[in-house]
């Protein structure tokens, strides 16, 4: 069953670490590992988090292409047609195949405006972004680095499996991302995800609530921590 669009949109209320922990609650065990490794550069542009179905592509740009300009231009138009299609909400998930030595910025003022106009909700890449002061408001981008040039950037492949900082993404996967990184939400836990989030947040309050009270001390912590350990995944 396809998850409700309103519920998917509601997941933007939570940061990605919360979703990561809630997935383990839903699975009833630790060990979920379908997330990014490493530190991103972020341009959240007024958004708290982003979530959507992956529209995937691969780019390159460190060196000139050996293909003809006509082929490169045609593929870029195919890229925009592909990004304009598909279920919403959607995220653009782009692997720069020059990684870890990416130099060509795909994300800047023009592309953030265009992609938001095509009704995408944000972008995740291991590549480069620029024009940070001119990104479209409400279109978050998390990227591997910041740089000044587009170099020889072009689209290499569309609607393909990609890997971003260790996170493997297939077209159509549901991705959640913010300034902490990104993860792929397993489809089988979607029916239980909201209940898992609620349980996680309630469990955290076992520690947080008394720690904020006057008179909090080690004895109070030991009592609360015992209850916390009994409840957590």
Structure description:
Strands 1, 2, 3, 5, 7, 9, 12 and 13 form an eight-stranded mixed β-sheet that branches. A three-stranded parallel β-sheet has the order 4-6-8. Strands 10-11 form a two-stranded antiparallel sheet. It has 233 residues and is an alpha/beta fold. The chain starts with a helix and ends with a helix. It is built from six helices and 13 strands. The model has no long low-confidence stretch (mean pLDDT 96).
Overview features:
233 residues; 24% strand; single chain; 13 strands; eight-stranded mixed beta sheet; alpha/beta; elongated
Query: End-to-end span in angstroms?
Result: 27 Å
Overall pLDDT score: 96
Compressed to H and E, one letter per element, the order equals HHEEHEEHEEEEEEEEEHH
Rg over alpha carbons = 20 Å
Task: Please report which band the strand proportion falls in: under 5%, 5-15%, 15-25%, 25-35%, 35-45% or over 45%.
Answer: 15-25%
In terms of structural class, how would the helical and strand content be classed?
Answer: alpha/beta
What is the oligomeric state here?
single chain
**How many strands appear in the DSSP assignment?**
13
* Distinct helical segment count: 6
**Largest sheet, strands/sense/barrel:** 8 strands, mixed
Share of helix among residues?
A: 25-40%
- The outline comes out as elongated
Q: What are the low-pLDDT stretches, counting only 5+ consecutive residues below 50?
A: none
């Amino acid at each position: 069953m396809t998850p409700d669009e309103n519920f998917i949109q509601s997941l933007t209320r939570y940061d990605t670490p919360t979703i990561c922990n809630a997935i383990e609650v839903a699975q009833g065990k630790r060990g979920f590992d379908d997330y990014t490794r490493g530190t991103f550069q972020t341009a959240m542009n007024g958004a708290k988090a982003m979530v959507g179905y992956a529209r995937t592509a691969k780019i390159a740009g460190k060196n000139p292409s050996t293909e003809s300009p006509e082929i490169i231009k045609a593929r870029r138009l195919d890229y925009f047609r592909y990004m304009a299609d598909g279920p919403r909400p959607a995220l653009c998930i782009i692997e720069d195949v020059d990684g870890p030595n990416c130099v060509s910025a795909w994300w800047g003022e023009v592309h953030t405006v265009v992609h938001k106009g095509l009704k995408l909700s944000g972008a995740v890449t291991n590549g480069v972004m620029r024009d940070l002061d001119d990104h479209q408001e409400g279109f978050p981008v998390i990227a591997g680095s910041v740089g000044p040039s587009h170099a020889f950037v072009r689209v290499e492949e569309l609607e393909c499996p990609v890997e971003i900082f260790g996170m493997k993404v297939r077209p159509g996967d549901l991705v959640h991302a913010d300034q902490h990184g990104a993860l792929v939400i397993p489809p089988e836990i979607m029916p239980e995800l909201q209940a898992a989030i609620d349980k996680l947040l309630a469990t955290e309050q076992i520690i947080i609530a008394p720690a904020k009270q006057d008179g909090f001390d080690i004895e109070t912590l030991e009592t609360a921590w015992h209850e916390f350990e009994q409840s957590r995944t």
